[in-house]
Each structure stands twice: as C-alpha cells, then as structure tokens.
Design goal:
about 40% strand; five-stranded mixed barrel; 1 helix; mainly beta
C-alpha cells in the first residue's frame, strides 16, 4: 500500500503512548486496516493513523491520507512526525453503478 496516497480503512483499535512528539499531544492515535471499499475485505496490514477531528473510533470506516507532506498540511504542522492521517468518515461508496453503504 506504500504507493497509495489515500485509501479506505476500518478503525480496529486505539493506540496509546506514554510519550508523544509535542505536535501529537492533543491528537488521538488509531489503528487502521485498509479494506476493499465495496466488499470490506482486508487489503493489508494495520497501521497507525492520527485522527483529525472526524470523531472516528473503533468500527468506523474512514478515508486515510497516507503521504507525509499532505498529512502534515492537513494538521497544519510542518514539524509533525507523521505520514498517515484520518481525513474523513465514509458513509457510502459508489463504483461502477454499485453502492455500498456503511452502518
């Protein structure tokens, strides 16, 4: 998935750290697993992502930005040591005339 700049994922857990970089102190860290947006089948390994005001939590289907420069731009912090940020909660996906709605 390294070549993908954005992907759909399921939030599968929370991440806790006793120490965080100052730019992440007020941010939630979540574990996300890429999925096929129409079938919800897993597509890769889980990875950590910063939650950015979306209200996402375990069980949410989310849109993830996976590119460092863009992720830092979303957070408006060029010093943040991040690459992956959750930018939205997905309600439904439409492709080739098929629509898949998430609960």
């Amino acid at each position: 998935l390294a070549e993908m700049a954005m992907f759909v994922a399921e939030v599968i857990g929370n991440v806790w750290g006793t120490r965080k970089h100052r730019s992440l102190c007020d941010r939630r860290l979540l574990l996300v697993r890429p999925i096929d947006p129409l079938t919800e089948k897993p597509l890769g390994d889980a990875q950590m992502a910063v939650e950015y005001g979306t209200g996402a939590g375990p069980g949410s289907i989310v849109l993830v930005m996976d590119e460092g420069g863009s992720a830092r731009a979303v957070l408006k912090d060029e010093e943040a040591p991040i690459r992956t940020v959750i930018v939205g909660v997905v309600d439904s996906v439409s492709s080739g005339g098929k629509v898949h709605k998430y609960d």
